[in-house]
Write a structure and sequence with these properties.
The protein has 252 residues and is of the alpha+beta class. The protein has one domain: 4-Layer Sandwich (CNF1/YfiH-like putative cysteine hydrolases). It contains five helices and 16 strands. The strands form three sheets. It has a seven-stranded mixed beta sheet. A six-stranded mixed beta sheet has the order 2-3-4-16-8-5, with helices on one face. Strands 12-14-13 form a three-stranded antiparallel beta sheet.
């Protein structure tokens, strides 16, 4: 089901809450690129330390996001995305480590998954307190990062899933070696000029989730996209650029 996110103010930030998931005890939102202290190509709420921005600016931006999530900065759990299949189950915020998914049952932590065109995905279990945030680019999807994340839940059928803003089908051109990886995914690959194709990352993610046992009616897909990099950072639109986040915290 498609979902259009609407901005609300939290302190100095405009964030986009995923309101349907509040029913299941999770406060989740997507940050945009505004309300932070970074400048230049990272203006202004860049949350990535690996993109060339000043570390002090990123630290302050993360503090503001943590405040919007209702946690101390020390309890905002962030990892370096590595475009792989590694999933970390955590009870405290990890140190600087590479992974593409975080899983927790803690109500003290807010999970933040950083993106700038890849798909940010939230998994919420209606029958337990476990929830997970996933970074899903084409490499991670090909490496089965979603299967590894779903494996941390007892019953995939009890999951509710949100797929956040990402690059659009029309905006994402790939080469033949990438298109071939997803050739069996219905309506996810479309021929383009020459040997190039257009790839729908969210269609691939939704297809994989269905095969893992998640029902269509339990999937929410944001209508917003990162194309152009105006509201959300887009690595395809501008390099260098910042990173925005899908943030989630248990409320009960």
């Amino acid at each position: 089901m498609e979902l259009t996110l609407h901005a609300e103010r939290r302190g100095s930030l405009s964030v986009y809450p995923v309101t349907p998931l509040r029913e299941f005890g999770v406060d989740a939102f997507v940050s945009d690129r505004f309300g932070g202290v970074s400048d230049g190509p990272y203006e202004s709420l860049n949350l990535g330390v690996h993109v060339g921005d000043e570390a002090a600016n990123v630290e302050e931006n993360r503090r503001r996001v943590a405040r919007a999530a209702g946690v101390d900065a020390a309890n905002l759990a962030i990892v370096r995305q590595v475009h792989g299949d590694r999933v970390l189950a955590i009870t405290s915020a990890p140190p600087d480590v590479g992974a593409d998914s975080l899983v927790t049952s803690s109500s003290q932590l807010a999970l933040a998954m950083l993106v700038a065109d890849c798909v940010p995905i939230l998994l919420v279990d209606e029958s337990s307190t476990t929830f997970a945030a996933v970074h899903a680019g084409w490499r991670g999807l090909a490496a089965n990062v979603l299967a590894n994340a779903v494996a941390h839940f007892e019953r995939p059928a009890s999951l509710h899933v949100f797929l956040g803003p990402a690059i659009s089908f029309e905006g994402y051109q790939v080469g033949p070696e990438v298109a071939a990886l997803f050739a069996d995914v219905t309506d996810a690959v479309r021929p383009d000029v020459g040997d190039r194709s257009r790839l729908d990352l969210r269609a691939v993610a939704a297809w994989q989730l269905r095969r893992l046992g998640v029902a269509d009616e339990r999937m929410l897909i944001s209508t917003q996209v990162t194309d152009g990099g105006e509201t959300f950072f887009s690595d395809r639109a501008r390099r260098p650029t910042g990173r925005f986040a899908l943030v989630a915290k248990r409320t009960s």
